[in-house]
Amino acid sequence: MKSYNVNEEGYYGMFGGAYIPEILYNNVENLRKEYLSVLNDSSFKKEFDELLRDYVGRPTPLYLAKRLSARYGCKVYLKREDLNHTGAHKINNTVGQILLARRMGKTRIIAETGAGQHGVATATVCALMNMQCVVYMGATDTERQRLNVQKMEMLGATVIPVTSGNMTLKDATNEAIRDWCCNPFDTHYIIGSVVGPHPYPDMVARLQSVISKEIKKQLQEKEGRDYPDYLIACVGGGSNAAGTIYHYLNDLRVKIFLSEAAGKGIDTPFSAATIHLGKTGIIHGSKTLIMQTEDGQIEEPYSISAGLDYPGIGPMHANLAQTGRAETLAITDDEALEAAFELTKMEGIIPALESSHALAVLSKKQFQPEDVIVLCLSGRGDKDMETYLKEHRGKLKI
Ligand SMILES: *Cc1c(COP(=O)(O)O)cnc(C)c1O
Questions:
Q1: Which of the residues 70, 218, 297, 304 could staple to 293 if both were Cys, CB 3.0 to 4.6 A apart?
Q2: For the segment 204-223, what is each residue's pLDDT rounded down to a tens digit?
Q3: Helix 315-323 vs helix 200-208: angle between axes, to the nearest 10 degrees?
């Protein structure tokens, strides 16, 4: 049977691999050799599970949203990753990677961050484990996301504003890679999504797979069967989606809808819809779909949602899209905003703007009354309040 998991060589179909400079070879190769044995080690599992339970707050609820279900004529369950410590799914990955780093004898952690969510999740676990933490962040983003910079600093991390390129996520990632090249022995690089060279996409997917592991158990209890008819998740790099679909990847009874950020529309220059608009290329060590110009320059993506404007996409998702295993929908800023206000009004839950892109899928598809849908509510909306208020006022013409 066809498998949608990574193969021995680190590829998902034609995507993935490890396209890295010679100087990084040993770092990545050591990680590749060790990650599976660490992740499968029983003492690692025990410590990881305990922290997920007592520190992160897992299992997160699988909540049957009754009013939303009535509105869309099907059963809509929300997987409440918004209730995790630090407000999103990202902490699942950083807890796992810091335990791995410690087992590999590392004492210093580096990370890249765009909006600052991954930076905060990394700084959090570094405080917890008493590890030195350096976070690279585009200078444009440090301006836009003051509060997250302050949180990281309060947590004890050093935030380095990156002034090369467009001074955003892509440039911060390049700088983090440069740091890792210079500090190969004591430093572990915690990548924030299912991107980067093999084994990162597979490692991060495995650490996030706790999401679908819980969904299976919770659906069995609530529905008497351990699989849904549909899974829906938003995709920036792809880690909350990977966690949501992981245990259903090869179960074709389960249909998968992924949503990416169309920004102002896929026919405008302001978009981050990598699967719709991207072409195959290499970014940050991985062969995948990338938003790029005719001559291969990476294009700056745009979305109202800072967590979704990465110019690449995880190789797992590139393959799911190419093979037709998943259907990808491009959701505009306006559609996401509408979905955010709808959830807030109907269920009393203010979602992250990223998650709102998943919610917007509900109005784009037809479902049957007996259909069971599980939608990953990847994060909470506190960080997006300024945007929401601005939009709300605009709509009310105050
Ligand atoms: C970072 C973020 C995302 C996008 O990242 P993925 O790796 O695609 O999951 C989605 N939702 C929230 C709340 C985020 O913080």
A1: 297
A2: 999 999 999 999 999 999 99
A3: 80
* Residues 6 or more apart whose Cβ sits within 8 Å of residue 89: 81, 208, 211, 239, 240, 243, 376, 378, 379
pLDDT tens figures, 380-397: 999 999 999 988 776 655
Q: Is the CB of 355 under 6 A from ligand 1?
A: yes
Whose CA is closest to atom 7 on ligand 1? 239
Respond yes or no: is residue 214 known to be catalytic. no
For residue 128, pLDDT over 80 is answered with yes
pTM of this structure: 0.97
Give the mean pLDDT of 25-37.
96
User: 208 in ligand 1 pocket by Cβ < 6 Å?
Assistant: no
- Ligand 1 neighbour 243 (Cβ under 6 A): no
Integer angstrom CA distances of residue 174 from 162, 164, 383: 10, 9, 26
Domain boundaries 19-51+90-203, corresponding CATH code: 3.40.50.1100
Q: What is the number of other CB atoms lying within 10 angstroms of the CB of residue 128?
A: 14
For residue 138, the model assigns a pLDDT of 93
Rounded distance from Cα 1 to ligand 1 centre (Å) = 31
Q: Give the pLDDT confidence of 178-193 residue by residue, as tens digits.
A: 999 999 999 999 999 9
Band the pLDDT of 398: cuts 50, 70, 90: very low
**Inter-residue contact 187 to 180 (CB < 8 Å):** yes
Ligand 1 atom nearest to CA at 117: 15
- Structural tokens at position 100: 């791995």
CATH classification of 57-87+209-395 is 3.40.50.980, yes or no?
A: no
Distance (angstroms) between ligand 1 centre and the Cα of 378 equals 6
Q: What residues does CATH 3.40.50.1100 cover in the chain?
A: 19-51+90-203, 57-87+209-395
Assess whether 378 carries a catalytic annotation: yes
